[in-house]
Structures are given as C-alpha cells and as structure tokens.
Sequence to fold (342 residues):
Amino acid sequence: MHDIRAIRDEPQRFIDGWTSRGASDAAALIDEILALDAKLRAAQTAGQDALARRNAASKAIGAAMGKKDMAEADRLKAEVEGLKGEIAAQEAVEAEAGKALRDLLAAQKNLAADDVPDGADEAGNVEVGVWGAPRRTGPAKDHADLGEAMGLLDFEAAAKMSGARFAVLKGGLARLERAIGQFMLDLQTEQHGYQEVAPPYLVRDEAMFGTGQLPKFEEDLFQIATPAFRAQLELTATADVLEQFNQSGEMMKRLVNVISDLGPEEHHTSEVRGEFAEYRKRTVELAEQSIEIIRRRNFLREQEGRQSFLIPTAEVSLTNLVRESILPEDDIATPMRLTALT
Fold:
C-alpha cells in the first residue's frame, strides 16, 4: 500500500518507478491519484468547516432563546438543519473518494530498488552471478518426495488434522526447522541490529492489507470461521424460510377469505377450524424464524470485513504489519528493522 504523502511529495519518482515496471501511462495514473486525493481532502475540509459552523449555531440557539429572540432562534435552527445535510453530503463524498483512492493505490506495484533492472515481471531479470554448477545427471527429486521417503514429512497426517497445504515435520527435520529459526533470530538481533517481535498468529484483514498479502492473495490465505462467517453459513442453509413465510402468509389470506365466505364461526366444520389453526401456528413459527434471520443479517452487516487471517509462515512483511500496530507513534518514523519467527 503506497503512502499518498510520498506520492504528493515526489510524484515523478512514482512515475519513473511504475514506468520501469511496465505501467503504460504512469503520468496519467499519478494525475488520477492526486485528483482523488484532492477531492478527498476538500470533502474533509468542507465537512469539518460545516461541522464547526453547525456547533457554533447550536450554541447560539440557546443564547437567542435566553434573550427571547425567537426569530433569531428560528433562523439558527434552520441553519443547523441545512448544515446537517451539507455535512452528510460531504461525508458521502469523502467515503466515495477515500474508497476509490485506497483501491487505486492497492492495485499498484511496489517501486523497485534503483539497482533492479527494468521489466514488468521475472522475465526482465538479469543474471548477476553464478555459484557452482547446475546438476546434469538427471532431474532432482522434489523435497516433498524426499521428506516422505525419509520419514520426515507426513502430508497424510497433516491433511487429517488441517486439510491440504500442511505437513507434519518429524524427527530431525522438525529439529532442523526449530534450529534454523532460532539461528536466524539470534543472528539478526545480535549482529545486524534487528528488533525481535512476537506478533499474533491471527490478524484482522486490515493488518494484512498492503503487506504483500491483501488484496492480491486473499484466496490463498487461510481464514478463521468467525461468528459472522458461521452466521452466514446458517443463513445460507435457511434462506428459504423467508420465502416459506411469504407463501404461508398468502395461504393464510386465502383461508381467511374462504372462512369469511362460509359465514359465522359456529357454522364452520371441525376440519376448517383445524386447518385454520394449523396455518396460524405455522405462520407464527415462520415469523419468529424470519425475525431471527433479520437479526443475523444485521449482525453480518456490522461484521462485514471483520475476517481473521492466519499469517503465512515466513511470508509476512513485518515492517508493514507490525510497525504501526506495535511501535509507539513517536517511533514510527524511525528506521527500524523487525524480525520474528512465524
């Protein structure tokens, strides 16, 4: 996720950087980004100004009432009502421009370092050095095949516990992974000036946004079934309840019409009374279920976007993920390298 402040300060750096990575018209893209940024900030300023004027007018109403100046009080009340609409309008513009700006920034590639060759993808890579010689005696075995053959990797057991894309490490391989992780932490913290952190394994979607995971790799991440997610599954399974309720209501109306045509209730047969009672009971049950579904849907709207993601092992960008969440505000601008065993 690019910092809009950096784009404001150095637009040409982003034009050059995105052009080197294959953007067709980076200058037009920068113009669009800055236009959205200006629209967003203008709406924020206008909204804040209207809010300040509304607050001042609200206070003045009390003063006018105290002086028995009803004409002035009425004028101020009308002004407050008008400002409410202006504030709402600016909030709508702010929300729309803010979302458009965030989506546009999230879709852009990162800027490459100065020594990285130009190119849109790995096809533009340049070989800068060679160590050793590639194996020529035949294709090398896959590490998964080697691990299973040596009894160090167990994909079947992992699948039973967690599903696909997991493996159980055993014996020496499990010990090797632990040792390599510890060696990395000790080396980076003791010799290279890194600060060790232990972030939570589960994070909300906004923490993963812009760290190299979201929005691009959302389908590849593991998500936790939150209450909102489980409620969504339940709603999917019972979505026909509302339709049944509507149908039952129509049947109730038809039954009432038939009973009305039959005349006074004392003339109704026991079959008609029983059928009417059954329809009424079923309609009440469906109405109660419908109310519960509406309550759950409201809950889902409140929880929208509140997913929990499992941090991918050895892939999370701790500088982005942890910096603004853990470091004190005064330290955010201080260059600091972070590392963790994930």
Q: What stands out?
A: Residues 26-66 form the longest helix (41 residues). The chain has four domains: 4-108, 142-193, 197-226+307-342, 242-298.
